[in-house]
Amino acid sequence: MNRDPHRHDLGEFLKARRAELDPAAVGLPDGGGPRRVAGLRREEIAVLAAISTDYYARLEQGRIQPSPSVLESLARVLHLDDDQRAYLYELAAKEEFRPPRRKPRPKAQPQLQRMIDDMAHTPAFVIGPRTEIVAWNAMGAALITDFAKIPEKQRYHIRLLITDPAMRQLYADWEGVTRQAIALMRMHNTNNPGDPQLAAIVGELSARDEQFRQWWGAHHVAFCDTGTKHLRHPVVGDLHLDWNAVTWAADPYLHIIVWTAESGTPTHDSLRMLASWAADPSRTTSDSST
């Protein structure tokens, strides 16, 4: 009989968090020698959570559904932050097995495209739960890359971050940006376990890149809808941009990513320069490495 894929993900999440815990941080003695496993042992987690070792082992194996009281104990013992706690409860809430649904690649409605096209000086693009890039405006393409030249089946933000060397140059904190993208992917896809399209992109990138494989396997999660990023743009130089993710009400799986800068700052002026560059009809693709 097939097991609920949420239970599998829950077990993997528990193992990943257990492996990160320092015994001293939870008040356990050192033991005087090297430990055979990273972090805490199953029996140590079970003792701290006041459950049996067998019960906890079955949780990690995806064989049983935890009770609310056990979830609360595990969240406390594993020192989960708010995002991790929300992810834990979201996984545990999916008790009934449902075969994964093959959701089509999201599409941007014409009015959504018109809206971002009207942002003449503001970079914007629309992203799906698997990091599909489904729409963008001229400034979004000028800031990041010419998305139109990327085949649709390969047009994923996470795939660009991993496979395109220009992305490692563009994002000053490439590792932080990439790890955050992976954590957001996990958080946004809790409602569709076993998604074949997500599995395909994860499988491809895991085979191609050891860092991606490690970061995906760490089961870190996050929910973030605003922040600041430092970009090193090949045309206009350093940019310190605020970004916001806005959910499109007509399709909650779509998020509009908008980049802005405070008026009067060097980055604000640079965005105006970038807009002029992007609108120049004499510009060719060789004018920029993006």
UniProtKB/TrEMBL annotation:
HTH cro/C1-type domain residues: 35-85
One Pfam family from the record: MLTR_LBD
GO molecular function: DNA binding
Domain of life of the source: Bacteria
Secretion signal span: none
Protein name in UniProt: XRE family transcriptional regulator
Organism encoding this protein: Streptomyces cyaneochromogenes
